[in-house]
Structure prediction request, 527 residues.
Amino acid sequence: MNVFRGATAIVGIGQTPYYKRGTSPDPELKLALRAIVAACADAGIAPQDVDGFVSYGSERNDGQKLMWGLGTKELKFGALVWTHGGGIPGALGLAASAIIAGHAEIVVVYRAMAEGSNERLRVAVAQNDTAAQYLVNGMDGPAQICAMRSQRMIEYDGVPRSCLRDMAKAAYFHAKRNPNAYGRTVDLDDQTYEASRYISEPYRLFDCSRENDASAAVILVSAERAKDLAKKPAYVLSAPIGAPHGWGAAEENMIDYTSGGFKSVAKRLWAQSGYGPKDVDVAQIYENMTGMGVAAIIDHGFCTPETAGDFIRYENLIVPGGTFPVNTSGGNLADGFIHGMGLVNEAVRQIRGESPNQVADAQLSLVTGGPGDMVVSTALLGSAATL
Amino acid sequence: MAQRERIVGGIGADEEYWNGLERGVFQLPRCTGCKKWMWPAHFRCGACGTWDLAWEEVKPEGVVYSWTRTWYPFDRTRERSEDVPYVVVLAEIPHAGGARVMGVLSGPEDKLKIGAAVRGRILAPSPKSKGYPSITWELA
Ligand SMILES: [Zn+2]
Prediction:
């Protein structure tokens, strides 16, 4: 018996516009409220009926702060999932578990970020858990740390650099057809990419996600309740969180160094969902940096380091035509960065048929959490036909 | 111990690493039970359950496990803005169980590649290293 698979569904999605970092007209808590209220409206649920609150990373707009603004009748469940962006699909998993266990009935998973009312985002996202060894040696945080891992993935594992470039190109291509995308005006061709400055080798400017002020939220309910609501449910087939032996807080001493950390959760994802990489119609791959998205794709078994050059190729990553369309709203790179939460909303839009770059007849929609995080997670969403 | 603001983001068992560097000694922690090298330092050996680790002096020699050349002056390491671009090397120490230790690269960079031999040199605490002593790697 698998009590988790398909027992809950995402029935509402909401988000604010992406504002340039530091320019949100609203403080962070208000952004969170806006996204949650929008998700409730989308689901046809009254905001005061939301009884569970789940987020991840350094989210500070917790349920206890939101409840007066939402008119919450009763707060029954609230939790923050480890660690950074690695926890996003895991937050879906925890929300679903709370519903299945009967702790709560209507759970919102959300993230809000605004530099004006919080510290610098890079600092907030890093959560003060960067060990001395990094900071002493000129390593500020994720961009450089991930750069070092991707350098070995390229130089030692033999994954072609073109995979990084093509992840970026696919994201910007999709963003051009998304009127809400922050990066929709950028034309990213090979020349523009190769001419862009290095941030930390092997990453160039276009390999790195920008930071925005924004908020996004999704509403989960039981599969039974989902049937009576307005929108086509996106069922949560599996949403494991975890880390394999030799991962975690390892200060670059992880056993599987060039991995994104997903091999153990991906194994559980396929086992629990009953599907495999070949079945996935569309994927939202968290790319804080392109190279880590590449590692996530390899970890999930879509390709190997040897076949990555052919598989993670621009033409194969885009709608229409690609067999593995990724980041169809533009992703963290070109849609906007709310610590990855925007990817969940897009994964749901694909199941509904509402994506700006809709994959024809999308039934199985993957969304992966922040790669390379000390704990990571991944989720497979499906239409009713996949249950 | 020189004055330095303690960076609290890690496991928090590495104080002796920095103390060693401050005395001019490159040392890494090892389980007294099963002799497993434990880097980053921890409070308990997860392999055998021993609570005691010993700090052993290690020859600061290894090979480049990976590296990155940073071109952007990041916020939290802004003390190094004037050094951009600079290279940070993750050095693997074969005679310490393959422990990987970070350090900024000093000297010529033309032979920089994974697998290249590096030798470490200890630097005194400075603002660039946030008041900590540090090890800098040089291509051998
Ligand atoms: Zn031991």
